[in-house]
Input
Amino acid sequence: MSVVDHNAIELGPRISEAEVGDYLALLKPRVMSLVVFTALVGLMIAPVPLHPVLSFASILCIAVGAGASGALNMAYEADIDARMTRTANRPIPRGRVTREEATAFGLTLAFFSVMTLGILVNWIAGGLLAFTIFFYVVIYTMGLKRRTAQNIVIGGAAGALPPVVAWAAATGSVSVESALLFAIIFFWTPPHFWALALFRSDDYARAGVPMLPVVAGPDATRLQILLYTLVLVPVALAPWPLGYFSAVYGVTALVAGAGMLWLSFDVYRVREGVAASRATRRLFAFSILYLFALFAVLLGEVVFRAIAPLFR
Output
């Protein structure tokens, strides 16, 4: 691991050494990929078809808005990132980008993504994107992250909003279906991130971030993971019996939900040694697959309905 230049964080403005890759890293591309995928599903399953050019513009604006949030988050949390092994190689702790540069970059992207979406598509979607950026940067990053162990629970709303923004881009409104997509991601976020926090708790403690394992301990965190998973699975399954999503989705949600429940119970049950670490890592990895499977089925059904007439 490279040596962290703490002075690069504290000294303020200087000549930038940043390359294109450093600015791309500020966008948090792995987070952005999840945002783009869930937003694409929200756009594609909306009952009102959107022109392909406007569809592309909508997804691009949502992606850029997510990247803006990531850059502003990194600018504000540079001191935390410098203390954590997982984040010490990010552009600001390494001294490649200054906080001021990251802030200007993020604000510019935020402004143009919101304005472009509002002007080209509609202002309901633009307003929701602006609220998403505001919620992630101001409410979560500045307000919750350093103050409460419930930061992930409340802040998870920001990560759950992209499919709602995309739905609004297509329909000009928010509906039950988009609210269900929001609820799935919202209740998925705590078990997903708390699993990560369990095997990264030393990192968070060193950085002074009050994540649940640091504040309440690993056993309380394991219980919360299990409880939230017990809520998540029926919430994710509910759209099928309610008649909003198909039986294919329902079966997928049932099978994948059983996997989430089993792995969450395993995390709750196994509490010591290498086995406990393995259990949390398995849950973290599977939770990504779980969310991807639910949304991929919805997207796959739209694609199937589109191409089915070609084979008749």
In short: The chain has 15 helices and no strands.
